[in-house]
Amino acid sequence: MLEFHISDALIVFFIMPSPEIIIATRESRLALWQAEHIQQQMAGLYPLAHFSLLGMTTTGDQILDRTLSAVGGKGLFVKELELAMLEGRAHMAVHSMKDVPMNRPSELVLRVAGPREDPRDAFVSNNHENLAALPAGAIVGTASLRRECQIRARFPHLDVRPLRGNLDTRLRKLDQGQYQAIILAAAGLRRLGLADRIRSLIDTEDSLPAVGQGALGLEFLANHPTLGNWIDALVDPATEACVFAERTVSCRLAGSCDVPLGAFAEAEGEILTLRAFVGNPAGTRIIRACQSAPLSQYKALGDGVAMDLLDQGAADILNACRA
Ligand SMILES: NCc1[nH]cc(CCC(=O)O)c1CC(=O)O
Fold first, then answer.
1. What's the CATH class of domain 121-202?
2. 3-state helix, strand and coil shares in percent for the chain, rounded to the nearest 5
3. Is CATH 3.20.20.190 correct for 1-116+213-235?
4. Which of 227, 249, 270, 288 is the most exposed place for a label (fewest CB within 10 A)?
5. Is the peptide bond before 209 cis (omega within 30 degrees of 0)?
6. Does the CB atom of residue 34 touch ligand 1 within 6 A?
7. What's this protein's family per the entry (predicted)?
8. Quick check: 234 pLDDT over 80?
9. Catalytic residue set
10. How far is the CA of 308 from the centre of ligand 1 (A)?
11. What is the Å distance from ligand 1's center to 214 Cα?
């Protein structure tokens, strides 16, 4: 009996090829941390398979001087990883969910790995404790229209200016004195061991997070024989329902268009609560909505919140942004 089992194992090891899974990733420090994190989890769960990383420098990473929206939006970070999968150079990709656009190839499946890291925005400064403590005219750096809108609305005396580059670049620009403070996602700072740079966390009431902020996305070839089942084990259903509810708002309102928009869902037991806003970059107009629904109704919840925003006149704001 024992011998029989041993020979079974030998057949698995020497005759069946061990499946090779290639994971595409951007090469920023944060992207590599995230991809390695997933690689380690999968290697632990599926020791007979081999997981390797394919690092890629995307167009979005190469463009540092113009604003992202001017050159095709944040989808640039993801598009080239998707192409690598479609062309057979990789089987799956790890993304920050925040960077995954709404329009995606139908040959690829998107799942959300859990648990979600802190979804809040972080206030980072060497001399000041929080936004309220900044003197009039202080320069605050952010790359996001969502953050810009919310800061200008509450603190019209601050000077909000664009800030591009990966996390290390942004922190360097702060340290060089080009900004009195910058706003970054807490999740990225924590993942890179830079939590001590966070002077204070901004309450979600004051800065509603971006769709998907703090969550990791796993995208893979739909026709792969085993990846769907394997990745299922990394998915946290509550986190996924939250993020998909948030993405539904974005899909209904903005598509892949870059507008000041935030959507953030939280699960309490089986109930999801989804808050969202749209506004103009100047922060002079903000429309908000909040609804709850059972976890399984995440899509209807996203639709409902989007409808609420549209009923309140969101289309005007969105058209002005597109113009
Ligand atoms: N837009 C870039 C980006 N994409 C994901 C994160 C942080 C990690 C996350 O939100 O999951 C960041 C940096 C930031 O916004 O400060």
1. alpha beta
2. 40, 25, 35
3. no
4. 270
5. no
6. no
7. Belongs to the HMBS family.
8. yes
9. 99
10. 27
11. 7
